[in-house]
Design a protein that fits this description.
Number of helices: 5
Number of strands: 0
Structural class: mainly alpha
Oligomer: single chain
Radius of gyration: 18 Å
Helix content: over 70%
Strand content: under 5%
Order of helices and strands: HHHHH
Shape: globular
């Protein structure tokens, strides 16, 4: 039932939060619209794809959240760091990027069991499109982060 709702969902149906901030639910709705429009999932593919994709998103969000907490705690210290501390700082950034790449590769293997290669290519293009459309949505609606 939820998948039918997502497939029929249109941008015009996205409600604006009255406090002028986009909610996670609004952002997720925009993502779902884009993904369904771009991937053209049949019901069987959709029922297998969405749970895997949601797990990937949660892992990426946790990885990003942890990294940006660390970065915010350390970025103002760079000018005062010793070479050894700078080396650790740069190593931590590299580790974050490697974890993101490893995560993408692991989920790519899972997506290949569900989607065609063309759909996987559209998936990755859709994620970029989502980011750009979300920025445009915020600008059009005068929303803040």
């Amino acid at each position: 039932m939820f998948l039918i709702f997502l497939c029929s969902f249109s941008k015009a149906q996205i409600k604006i939060n009255p406090d002028k901030k986009i909610t996670r639910q609004e952002a997720d709705s925009i993502r779902s619209v884009i993904m369904n429009r771009e991937l053209l999932l049949n019901p069987a593919e959709a029922s297998r794809f969405w749970p895997v994709y949601e797990r990937e998103l949660k892992e990426i969000q946790k990885l990003n959240r942890d990294y940006f907490i660390w970065l915010n705690q350390n970025k103002n210290q760079v000018d005062r760091m010793s070479n050894s501390e700078l080396q650790d700082f740069l190593q931590k950034q590299d580790e974050y990027l490697q974890k993101k790449l490893d995560l993408r590769r692991a989920y790519d293997i899972q997506f290949r069991k569900i989607l065609s290669l063309k759909q996987i290519a559209h998936l990755y293009l859709s994620e970029d499109k989502y980011a750009r459309e979300l920025v445009q949505y915020r600008i059009r609606k005068g929303l803040s982060d």
